[in-house]
Write a structure and sequence with these properties.
38% of the residues lie in helices and 16% in strands. The strands form 2 sheets. It has a 9-stranded parallel sheet. It has a 3-stranded antiparallel sheet with strand order 1-2-3, with helices on one face. It is built from 12 helices and 12 strands. The chain is of the alpha/beta class. The chain has helices at 37-44, 60-69, 81-84, 94-105, 125-128, 133-151, 184-195, 214-227, 249-260, 282-298, 341-357, 368-387; strands at residues 4-10, 15-22, 25-27, 47-52, 72-75, 109-110, 112-117, 157-162, 200-205, 234-237, 265-271, 303-308. Helix 1 packs parallel to helix 11 and helix 10 (282-298) packs parallel to helix 11. The chain has a single domain (46-349), classed as TIM Barrel. The protein binds (3S,4R)-3-hydroxy-2-oxopiperidin-4-yl beta-D-xylopyranoside (XIL).
Length: 394
Amino acid sequence: MITVVTTIIGGPGFRAAVSAQGTSGECHPSDPATCTLADLADLLGIRIGTTLEDFEIVDSDYVATLRREFTSVTPENALKAYSIRPTQSSWDFSAGDAVVDYSVDAGLEIRGHTLVWAKDEYTPAWLAGLTDPVALWTATQEHVTQVMSRYADRVRRWDVVNEPLATLGTGPSDSVFWSLAGDWIGDVFRLADSIDPTAELWINEYGTDWVPGKHAAYLSLVRDLVESDVPIDGVGLQVHRLPGSAVDQALLEQQLRDFTSLGLQVAVTELDVPVAPTDPGALEWQASQYRKVMAACLAVSGCREVTVWGLSDRDTWLDGLGVFSTPTRPLLFDDSLRPKPAYTAVRDLMAQTVVRRSLPTTGGFAGSEVLTAWAILTLGVALVMSTRRPRRTS
Ligand code: XIL
């Protein structure tokens, strides 16, 4: 998805406006309704993502919205072990191939999710049942090797280990993977790095934004990896919110910074904000929560992505969990794929941020050349940031 940036010199104060010709045609951030989320994400040098399943590819309304509004995709289930290797003797890449091929054709970046999911309930029974650590490691090596090799030319970013911590606690999860000896998380990252040395390697975790003490536990785990020179590039915060629980923007921003201070990229990888089914004010409240999450990411220079966990309310995984009153209505588009207040809030904040970043405020510079050079530099940095792999070198 290539965005063309142009500068418009706006009057004696040399106020620059930025516009983009992206998926929506002409995007003028000073008039946010002319822009899609994808246009604005490109201008801001971040990814805006959502999920994709193989059966959603044939839904023309779904994919039209996906292609118009988003720049990246996380396969919701198709690349997980339970999809790819449901039994020890059966490999099934059909859903993964469909989602990956579609995304590549559509020019969408892919977050490969996930190589090892450290939750037994989401691990194929045959794999979770391997009580011999040697057999478990052999199976893990085989899985990571097969999956990464198959998609190496198309999937440039992987959630290598997902949810190593207890869902609602601060200790290790009760996954079979913790029966592996020593630094098993580091071992999986080193394995992944050996298979595809140029892929971005990420860790991802649930609930660190609201489970008491979990952020500190996650930070400590990640710091240990960094200090052990484990080849890790990024840290994902899932940010699945609870109904009625307000986002603390400053806290979320600080949590993101705690990881970028370690020299890593960060991303909000699985955002959803469920609300009560009958609360009339819920959608406006939800919009303000979405806005705070996007604002926190935009405030942190190493925050590379915000991905919402599902495109429209009719697609959400939350309604099938049996935990919340339904419909939970947690996403940016409603059941008919109409944008909700949360969409408008996110879009407008992104547009305001583009405008604010593109307005030189002092009179120290003059001339359209300066502004044009600035715009080219911004585009160049955005393109480089979207393609490079800022592997830690120390
Ligand atoms: C969920 C999917 O959305 C569901 O369709 C599936 O049944 C279970 O997994 N954390 C993660 C995601 O890392 O992979 C999960 O996705 C949601 C929680």
